Amino acid sequence: MEMNSLKPSEVFNFFAEVNRIPRPSKKEERMIAYLQEFAARRGLECKVDETGNVLIRKEATSGMENRKTVILQSHMDMVCEKNREVEFDFEKDAIRTVVEGDWMRAEGTTLGADDGIGVAMELALLDASDIEHGPIECVFTRDEETGLSGAFGMKPGFMSGDILLNLDSEDEGQFFVSCAGGAGTTAEFDFTPVKVPQDYFFFELKVKGLTGGHSGDDINKKRANANKILVRFLYDSLAKYDMYLCDIQAGGLHNAIPREAMAVCAIPMKDKESIRVDWNLFSADVEEEYRVTEKSMIFELQSESPVEEAVEREVAHKLIGALLAVHNGVLSMSQDIDLVETSSNLASIRLVEEGCKIVVKTSQRSSILSARHHVSNMVKAVFELAGACVTVGEGYPGWKMNPDSEILRIAVRTYKELFGREPLVLGIHAGLECGLFSEKYPGLDMVSFGPTLRGVHSPDERLLIPTVSMVWEHIKVMLKNIPVKA
Q: Hey, which residues are catalytic here?
């Protein structure tokens, strides 16, 4: 399937435009300018709030003026993850897309379909002259992926619609009506550099090639966390050898399950072969543990040039012990539905040479606020006991299901009429901006849906092309069925 033959062409053409615009989280200025120019060329009302959220309003088509106003919403930023060997600058380069059968992906980077495909659908709707709809407001929020600062900063009154369609879900045929809230917990370990003795063997450990994924939506899929795997080996080795930790750079974004982890260590030259044997045995054990979910896991041990300094021993031991002990993964399941209730993700570990510190970032999620506070405190306590300075972020709220949702009834009914099957109505463990909207706009009737994506927040992100057409057709039918204002 060639790019120019993808259907619906109006959506994929705009997706191609969006993917030519660099839009890392917190650096969406070029995307904002594009949206303003897009609206101006079409004579559409456009406003940008002080946070950088964009709203473009389109009047109803003839005969639909008395319908309730519908907000269609997506976020303009994207997760910027790439494979280590790929040369790519997310602040300058256009995403290079590839079509393989029914799937679209990018060359070694995230695809940006989360949530660029939602943005493209909104643009196609605003551009169309042959779609029946009542008054619509297309809203594009910024910085959803790294802090939800767009939704946090939006003030009541920016949107004026009655119904909100959030286009940021990742499974066609599923409608989400609730989501988890979350917060980040950061631990900082200060250390004094120490000299590494002479006649030590320096080596680099790497764990890579893991599946990764979304730290909310994929946390229950038994995928390996590269940080946790690396730390397991370091903990055993610190106990067995006179080992120094010289560097550690592991994991990536707070909302991604880590796919890669690296550490540089030093041990006495006499133990050089023993550590290689240990690593080989360890890697075989871990590969067996994750033989179902991690079929491309790679373990590397390579000689490294000597360095003069390492992390002081006491801090290294406390750091690695805390990283081993801190919770990662699912903590509890919901008592009401088959859904993860509470979880934590050990996201990244960074040795910062300039400040002589090691920074550990984690994220906690739960659909119950008290449970989220509890797991954040669990994580905080572990790192505090190890001597770290710990901060817990403000967090963001969850979204509670509305059992009387009118738009959900319309979505389910029209889906069955279109496709002849019953859709799923679910909650999601990931965070959605709907949680913040529900606080600022308590009467807003919302549902979240979208085409099928896999491998989001990783370079394996891919979009199932036929589902884009299904979602697009469903949006058009839903808009025709929006009820009149009371």
A: 77, 144
